[in-house]
Specification:
Its EC number is 1.2.7.4. It comes from Salipiger abyssi. With 781 residues, the protein is an alpha+beta fold. The chain has a seven-stranded mixed beta sheet, sandwiched between helices. Strands 7-15-14-13-8 form a five-stranded mixed beta sheet. Helix 17 crosses helix 18 (734-751).
Length: 781
């Protein structure tokens, strides 16, 4: 099948994955492999006074029980996650730069959250390892713990790290605080609200699994396991942990069974299995149970925002101010600080707000670390500004659409520098709004609301504009490696975990070089074959990978032209190239690119001085982000008797620039909407006051099913960006960014007529029913 950029082609990789030919992390099987189980802390905070492994070591099949003392004895280093990369570094409250505390995979002094690894049991089978882990005795001295985000900075709160008074990690300020304060102090209307974005979990399809294989002869570690950034992890493992050179470590992601940001983090099991393999002289595998996923993985979100929006009597925005407190957990995960600070600029929305300021504070707590998760700060930011806009509309008695329309950035004002860090290069925000309203039949809502009221139901409609930053300055690599039969392997620095990267590459190679999909294979982020790259995260791959593969294709076409000219006995200037064929204009002679690629392996068919073989390297270097944007319109019906929410309609129109594959774009948007709905309606990772997770299984942690939501209508309004050669804007997170505030606004719109206030997320039936019941006396009075 031929593929072309811009067409809604079926996914190139699906036949392989859907017929059971995928190679996921737990599919790795190596000769003589042993299995690991992790002994985890049952306390949120405790001193380690002893570990007794004697009974475990006597059990059948047990090969070793390893502790932090063994790690230290072997002279290994710490996992030094960057936390975040910023210039200048994030400041601490006293003005000194934040330095991330290093972390040993197994602690020796104290544990700092429930689920933290304390020891590793290795046995002949997974069952033997799991049983032995149960009998390892931990002698722990419980200590007070700081759990709640809102109280982490209290004077009497337990300290997570002694070097961080009041558990304050950093204080980051953007915008103009004086201008924002002046706007709020003189405005006729100021809306103030505390908004809580709860802690949740990514819950990928495949739990994390990792296999370590140490080759003593080469003094070389190979780590198999689904990760988003294999090159960064390779370098960190080599230089900081195993203390070897990067060429002594390989990371092999294989097929990644879902991630959403979670597997962009360096978890402790990765260095542990490599170390255990070296100790035992055989491969060692570890695979998480679902409970380990919920307790031991890095979590997401968990931020409290106190926001204020100033408006005039006509509904024009005058100023905005916010203070955020982000719970980072007990350690800063890989880019774990990023959601708290990097996307605060999204609070500006697509609006002309003249004065804005945000103060962001990070806090340690005795809870699991957090990591970027679909949106990584963007959904939180959009939720804040769009909830505040709806509150302003209600205060002024205005239609929520009209107040947004009055404040949208006009096309002729672009590029537009907001009062919060970002400069939007392009967009047609009002056109996107109008398309979404038309598709949702916004004008017909009053009639539908009346029909619901006749049945005793409360109907609401919610609108949310959204804009986000996708990608950033950086680079990516792609190589085209041709075989003697003319087929081609794309070697890419990106990492696919559900986005359809293989299809992206197939579309470009097929269209430009004349290949069928079956003749194209793709390998991503395998450091055994690819020596340089960045990986996937922040909706960067489409922009970077498309530019990199175009660069490699252009070089391949140029090399092929030399060979084609030699074969056809003409000058290179006499040849044109289009859709996989070189053609001589004067005679009509032609030769396909694949014929040329095959000829490249025969020395007697090459121009003088050209070496046999065909392998071209492409690289993209982009100077800044793109800004996907859109509008979501959601319609719900609430049962006042039960507190249940029935989502009736969800329409969105997104501008993600040039759509390489519109079918995949829609799939990404649909998935993002459902993840947003999960957070608004049901998902909640709950700690009790002692730091115990009480939502540690799917019996307690709810996630949306297809029956929980309506069919999603995804429209598009592409405005290509000039920030990258192909004009694409990231699409992976946009659905989540806009859907969270749209759904929340719809629910509050439904219950507002009863005088009820939207509860904090998740808006469960009990919370919603309670809010409606509490509003009844106030309305009656």
């Amino acid at each position: 099948m031929k593929f072309s950029p811009g067409e809604a082609n079926p996914r190139h990789e699906d036949d392989r994955l859907l017929t059971g030919c995928g190679q996921y992390s737990d599919d790795v099987r190596l000769p003589n492999m042993a299995y690991a189980a992790i002994v985890r802390s049952p306390y949120a905070h405790a001193g380690i006074t002893g570990i007794d492994a004697e009974a475990a070591l006597e059990m059948e099949g047990v090969l070793a029980v390893l502790t932090g003392a063994d790690w230290d004895a072997d002279g290994l280093g710490e996992v030094v996650n960057p936390g975040i990369v910023m210039k200048p570094p994030l400041p601490r409250p006293d003005g000194t730069p934040f330095v991330n505390p290093g972390r040993k995979p197994l602690p020796t002094d104290r544990v700092r959250y429930v689920g933290e690894p304390v020891a590793v049991v290795v046995a002949e089978t997974p069952a033997q390892a799991a049983l032995a882990a149960e009998v390892v005795e931990l002698d722990l001295d419980p200590l007070p713990a700081a759990i709640a985000t809102a109280h982490a900075r209290d004077e009497d709160a337990a300290q997570v790290w002694e070097a961080f008074p009041r558990n304050e990690v950093f204080v980051h300020r953007i915008g103009d605080a004086e201008a924002a304060e002046a706007a709020l102090s003189t405005a006729p209307h100021v809306l103030r609200e505390r908004l809580v974005v709860n802690r949740i979990h990514a819950n990928p399809m495949e739990p994390r699994s990792v296999t370590g294989d140490y080759d003593a002869e080469r003094d070389h570690y190979t780590i198999y396991g689904g990760v988003q950034r294999s090159f960064s992890f390779r370098d960190m493992l080599a230089e900081k942990v195993f203390r070897v050179t990067p060429d002594q470590v390989d990371v092999v992601p294989g097929d990644v069974g879902g991630s959403f940001g979670l597997k962009g983090s360096m978890n402790m099991e990765m260095p542990l299995v490599g170390w255990a393999s070296k100790r035992l002289g055989r491969p060692v595998k570890w695979t998480a149970t679902r409970t380990e996923v919920l307790t031991g993985d890095e979590h997401a979100r968990d931020v409290i925002v106190d926001a204020a929006l100033a408006v005039d009597d006509e509904g024009r925005f005058l100023g905005f101010q916010a203070e955020t407190v982000s719970n980072l957990g007990a350690f800063a995960g890989f880019f774990g600080l990023a959601p708290a600070v990097l996307n605060l600029g999204s609070m500006a929305g697509p609006y002309t707000i003249p004065a804005m300021s945000v103060e962001a504070v990070g806090v340690w707590t005795h809870t699991g670390p957090v990591a970027p998760y679909r949106g990584a700060g963007r959904p939180e930011a959009a939720f804040v500004i769009e909830r505040m806009v709806d509150l302003a509309a209600r205060e002024l008695g205005m239609d929520p659409v009209e107040i947004r329309r009055r404040n949208l950035i006009p096309v002729d004002a672009l590029p537009y520098k907001t009062a919060l860090t970002f400069t939007y290069d392009c967009g047609e925000f009002e056109a996107v709004l109008d398309k979404a309203l038309a598709a949702a039949d916004y004008a017909g809502f009053p009639a539908r609301k009346a029909e619901s009221a006749a049945r005793g139901k409360l109907r609401g409609i919610g609108v949310a504009m959204c804009i986000e930053t996708a990608g950033s300055a950086g680079y990516e690599t792609t190589e085209l490696k041709f075989a003697e039969d003319g087929s081609v392997t794309v070697l890419a620095g990106t990492t696919n975990h559900g986005q359809g990267h293989s299809t992206l590459f197939a579309q470009y190679v097929s269209d430009r070089l004349g290949y069928d999909g079956a003749e194209i294979s793709v390998v991503e982020s395998d450091t055994r074959e690819i020596k340089d790259g960045v990986g996937t995260g922040g909706s960067r791959s489409a922009a970077f990978a498309s530019a990199a593969v175009e660069d490699a294709i252009a070089k391949a076409v140029a090399k092929g032209k030399r060979i084609a000219a030699h074969l056809l006995q003409v000058g290179e200037a006499d040849l044109s190239f289009d859709s996989g064929e070189y053609t001589v204009a004067s005679s009509g002679q032609h030769i396909s690119f694949q014929e040329v690629a095959r000829a490249a392996f025969s020395p007697d068919m090459l121009p003088s001085g050209m070496e046999p073989g065909f392998h071209e390297y492409g690289r993209s270097e982009l100077g800044g982000p793109s800004f996907p944007n859109g509008c979501h319109v959601c319609e719900v019906e609430v049962s006042p008797d039960l507190g249940t929410v029935d989502v009736l309609s969800h329409v969105l129109v997104d501008d993600v620039g040039f759509e390489i594959n519109p079918m995949i774009v829609k799939g990404q948007l649909h998935g993002g909407v459902l993840q947003a709905a999960g957070q608004i309606l049901m998902e909640d990772l709950v700690y009790d006051e002692d730091g115990q997770i009480i939502t540690g299984s799917f019996m307690d942690y709810a996630m949306p099913r297809i029956s929980d939501y309506c069919s999603i209508e995804a429209g598009s309004h592409p405005v290509p960006t000039a920030t990258n050669p192909t004009g694409v804007k990231g699409a992976g997170e946009s659905g989540t960014v806009g859907a969270m505030p749209a759904l929340a606004n719809a629910i509050e719109n439904a219950i507002a007529e009863r005088g009820a206030k939207l509860p904090d997320m998740p808006v469960t039936p009990f919370k919603l029913w309670t809010a409606l019941q509490e509003a009844l006396p106030a309305k009656a009075g």
